[in-house]
Amino acid sequence: MIQKNEKRDKKMNSKIIIPIAVVISVILTAGIMYSIGFDEQSQIVQIPEPEIIYIDKSVSAYFEGTNEIKKISSQQELKSILEASASFDGGFDTRVIRNMAVDDAVMFDSAVATGAPIPESTTTKTESGGPDYSTTNVQVENVDEPDYIKNDSKYVYIVSQNTLSIIDAYPAESAKVVLKIALDIESQHIQNMFLNDNRLVIFYNGQSDEEIIPQFDFVPRRSYNSVTHALIVDVSDKENPSIIKDYSIDGNFRDARMIGNYAYFVTNSNVNHQYPRLPVIMEDSVRIMTPEAFYFDNVEQFSNFNTLTAIDIFGDVINSETFLMGYTGSFYVSENNFYLTYQQNMPFGFYENSSRDRFFDVVVPLLPNSIQSQIIEIQNDSSMSSTSQWIAISELMQKSYNKMDKKSKETLFEKIKDALNEYDKKIQEDTRKTIIHKISIDDDKIEYVAKGTIPGRLLNQFSMDENGDRFRVATTTEIYTQYEGTIRSNSVYVLNEQLEIVGELEEIASEESIFSARFIGDRLYLVTFQQIDPFFVIDLSTDTPKILGELKIPGFSNYLHPYDEEHVIGVGRDTKETENGRVQQLGVKIALFNVANVNNPKVVDDIVVGDSSTQSEALYNHKAFFFDKSREVLSIPISGDVKSLENASSVKMFAPDYNRWSGFYVFDLDASSGFELKGTITHSDSDTRYYGMSNARTFYIDDILYTASQEYLKMNSFENLDEINSIKLENTGKFIEYFEEDTSIELETISKSVSSP
Fold first, then answer.
1. Which of 108, 48, 43, 104 minimizes the C-alpha distance to 72?
2. How far apart are CA 218 and CA 513, in angstroms?
3. Which of 26, 575, 728, 747 could form a disulfide with 755 if both were Cys (CB 3.0 to 4.6 A apart)?
4. How far apart are CA 624 and CA 125, in angstroms?
């Protein structure tokens, strides 16, 4: 069901509180609460009000160092670095490992690798494609993002599990499957791919099994490690494509970008403290290089190798560098720089030490002076174990509490709680931070630039943006205190080229969290949510960010997309306040915001599809969102209960017996009038019982709107959505042999038939 949102001014005021308990404070609090009602007839002692004196220990001590980047020059140096940073359980096993096939000289041969020249394509298109076509919805212009489906003006390429399909999709009336083959890729699933002219770059995760000899042993052992394969496939001949390069890099695939003729991708490999070694790069099972490896003089605990690799897909050049740092999360990539981010890791033992410091630095100074002296005496008694010390301290405090009247106890306990809250806030402000690493890219050149630290956490890649020599980020900080629950705040930071903070705007939408962000030029459009949807327009024309305007409406937006300079599209969910003050999520909501008047943004129109059970991949994957400004057409995938969608105008909506419909909602979108449902395109399959729809994509070639799912590729007229053709997608195929001695492998054609809908 589609409904227009009514204007609502009702403010929702409930709050979600998430308590957190720290071990020492839990024990202390339990003892305190037990003692309040204990021995009320004991002698009353009035305790003077002590000054709160506790050491504000900065966590900066855990991150001392210059952050200077240093090169790892040998396997032995890597071992020494890891040993120096290890402070858990007495360190790690220091037995060495030797690779049976490679000596140290080869291990650290990190020059840019070149192989045999890739043959130039000699096959040209015999048929022309459409005059205009769309591609993957990406964040940064000229920076392509990988996906499971790619297209040009004529052909559609789809990877699913271990299968590659090539479809001659234009003209739509005669669309057919040209090739469907299964790649022999160790039964691993393909991640995604790039398309550039007649070249595909296909990524998939595999596994290496090198031989190792532990120290003082003579029997080789298998060492299994995750690797990422990058297959370069020549598809000039659509019926007989060939694999011309098969690179494998240690680590799991994290993300990738394509700029020009270069594919850049990041892999992450765990550090084996027992058998430490650097990542390596293989080509057709032959080791060709070990990337230059770098670390920082203040090595973080839980560090991993994050390897950035650049491949010329039309040449024979590959270069790579690896960095010992935290496990990377969100990426932002411009045409010139990679930004790798992750949450700051605290060292082993930090939280144990923090709990101890919390008690001795906060609680003890609030106790009577005589009790403080006795606690210090117990603490300094080396003949007692730590457990015995705590038992003695607990008994001492209990006796002290029992000598207090009820009012004195309550007063003291309130002071302790207030002090603990302030202490927790301070510690967490210092620890809950995001690390940003900046690495410049220029074809095969990879160069580390800078490291920065900002408070809070990033939502996703759209929380970051590069504009000239400035890098802008939007973060949410969540602080958990035992007695106040969760305290949230949001901030915007401006960083210079060296990732130093030069501007900030803090305390945005207190008690809310960022649900979506979009940087467009000198503005940031920000959506936060806890109970209502504040839509912020923030000025970034200077290094001093400021809020220009704010709009509060029910619901929230998970993704923001530019319409033009004066309008922004939001996709999320509608909400309503329940009788008990809570917030209930409703259907999928699409809104058009007018930001021409930055001081007074408005909602031009909004649409709600379905109910709370309705799902859309566009809520969490921007690649599933489609909007074409020239045609003013918007398409999003929808899966929902038939009854909740029954008011949709249309299009012969079909649903299987279990009353679940999946397909695409297509809207005409005008800046002045808003949304009008153009129709729906059904992807439900009566023979398949699934309750959602993933891998949902929309694109166009000429005047044909193409929609894809795991079930179908459908072709509909832009004008009226009349179906022109439909191809059933099936993940079937025969494995082909992989001959390592061959530099080029012809792929066997499995099927050329088209399954009619």
1. 108
2. 57
3. 728
4. 29
Q: Pick from 188, 187, 226: which is nearest to 204 by CA?
A: 188
Q: Are 466 and 473 in contact (CB under 8 A)?
A: no
- What is the bridge-based pairing of β-strands 633-641 and 97-99? unpaired
| Structure letter (DSSP) for residue 189 | P
Quote the Cα angle for 101-104-108, to 5°: 110
CA–CA separation, 207 vs 729, rounded Å?
28
Tell me the CB-side half-sphere exposure of residue 551, using CA atoms within 13 A: 25
Long-range CB contacts (within 8 A, 24+) of 659-665: 660/684, 660/691, 662/637, 662/638, 662/690, 662/692, 662/693, 662/709, 663/637, 663/638, 663/693, 663/707, 664/635, 664/636, 664/637, 664/638, 664/696, 664/698, 664/707, 665/609, 665/635, 665/636, 665/638
Residue 234, helix vs strand vs coil: strand
**What would the pLDDT profile of 592-646 be if each residue is shown by its tens digit?**
999 999 999 999 999 999 999 899 999 999 999 999 999 999 999 999 888 778 6
3-state SS record for 130-169: CCCECCCCCCCCCCECCECEEECCCEEEEEECCEEEEEEC
Residue type, 165: S
552-582: burial string, b at 16+ Cβ within 10 Å, e else: ebbbbbbbbbebeeebbbbbbbbbebeeeee
Q: Is the pLDDT of residue 351 over 80?
A: no
- Residue matched to tokens 């992989």: 738
Strand ranges (E), 400-512: 433-442, 445-455, 464-467, 470-481, 485-495, 501-508
Instruction: Give the helix ranges, DSSP H, for 37-119.
Output: 75-85, 104-107
d(CA 626, CA 309): 30
DSSP-derived secondary structure letter, 730: -
Assess contact for 323 and 142: CB atoms under 8 A.
no
Per DSSP, the three-state class of 14 is coil
SS3 content of the chain, % helix, strand, coil (to 5): 15, 45, 40
- Residue appearing with tokens 């980047």: 69
Residue 626 has, within 13 A of its CA and on its CB side, a CA count of 26
